Amino acid sequence: MLLSLTIKNYALIESLEINFSNKFSIITGETGAGKSILLGALGLVLGNRADLTSLKDKEQKCIIEAQFSLSNYDLKPFFAENDLDYEDDTIIRREILPSGKSRAFVNDSPVNLTELQLLGTYLIDIHSQHETRSLTNEEYQIGILDIVAQNNANLITFREHLKALKAAQKELDIAIATRAALAKEQEYNSFLLQELLTANLKEGEQVQLEEELEQLSNVEQIRENLDKVLALAHEENVGVLISMNEIRLAFQKLASFSKENLALSDRFESVWIEFNDIVTESHERSEKVIKDPERLEYVNEKLQVIYNLQKKHQVGTIEELLVIQADLDAKVVKVDDLQHEIEKLNQQVESLRQKVETSAALIAEKRTTAAPVLSKQIMDIIAQLGMPDAQLMFEIQRLDSFNKFGNTSVNLQFSANKGLALGEIKKVASGGEMSRIMLAVKAVLATYSKLPSIIFDEIDTGVSGEIAIKMGEIMKQMSDNMQVFAITHLPQIAAKGDQHYKVFKYNQEGTTISEIKLLPTEDRIVEIAEMLSGKSITDSALIHAKALLN
């Protein structure tokens, strides 16, 4: 519950500190006195966004601090999950700096707005003047029905399954689209791949074949020149080998006469050995050089295949053709692999769909069971609020598709008078009827949730007299289970509070200041009398005020 609220330099408030108690608290004041300022300040503490217009003095920072008693509300797990220091009396502080930046703290630990907003959902429900219209919103109708149906855990499970289903379905759709695109090229890719595989290409093969072609095409000339080399080397009497041998012997005889001659002899010996090797190898090559028309034809044909493939694929080497071959092979194989992947994804999607359907069915079943229970509880309360013949029903229908709430739609139907057909609440309920229904909804939900506090901002719009008294009594009954605040202009409701706070404003040194104070009994009588008769308080108004308080 909210224990205290401290506000400094916010809107019309210079400095204010107010303590609150449990049970039922009333807040009254003239229009424009600053009641909305209190709600705005509290909203900042609960994570609403702020700007520089919130500062009364633009040169000073704004500080809003709220103290909550949490000991009875099992919030330790939340604090642990969000790495926050837990205190039974927790202090939330929000600061808005003149620069426009803001900071938030929970028990002096910095937090971001998302964490603050999440914590706020466990602390206070602020019912604004315009929230009554949310009764016409299907999401709100589903939300209140799920609270009674206790569907929170089921919704979490369902949304996890639905998220997984959507992800798997997306993956399946991509795989199917990819397969379709590849399938269009499959036949052509297979042809190109087979063409390359038939060529049986090997790295470096082109250079070898081109060299072999050059030799096979010039066999006679090669043989002729090799034979000429051998003839010149071995020719009798004047052959190169004979002449070189004589030179070799002459150098050997000179070698013993000087180091220089020895060096020349050694050098010529090397030439002699090298030349002998050349002649021997030439002889061997001469014997191997034969005319082979069949081999020549094969090499020619193989090279022509290579050249044609290179031209077709616009590359210049066998290595590049082999890269293309590997890519085509991957594409052809991928179509087959994709088919297996699609089959697996289909199974996964179907499995997840069954889980989603099972979760959705459970949610729908619990809503169907809870709907008449909630309807009756709301009707019991609005009967006390002057609508004894009102009928209210949650119409639930199954959908063919899923959304974040399952696969059911909810439509709140209402009839205010006996004999009238039910219709959509947004079409048939008046403003006063909507206010009473909303109060009834909040009263029912108070018994299901463990929310510490609720603030009603003029929920009494459109009602008066005896109905207002009943509304005050219902809010007072709610305060048996939670802390209840009511901002009201109706004396009948104001009189039901356990404590009464008045918001007022005054001028001081050329500036307007808002304040709030707890009214003692005598001042409370005067306040309620003024609500009854206006500024000119009559004796009958005072008597009436005392009677209401009694």
From TrEMBL:
CDD domains: ABC_RecN. Residues 5-509 form the RecF/RecN/SMC N-terminal domain. It comes from the Bacteria. Residues 165-229, 328-362 form a coiled coil. The keyword ATP-binding applies. Keywords: ATP-binding, Coiled coil, DNA damage, DNA repair, Nucleotide-binding. Gene3D superfamilies: P-loop containing nucleotide triphosphate hydrolases. Belongs to the RecN family. May be involved in recombinational repair of damaged DNA. This is DNA repair protein RecN. It comes from Flavobacterium chuncheonense.
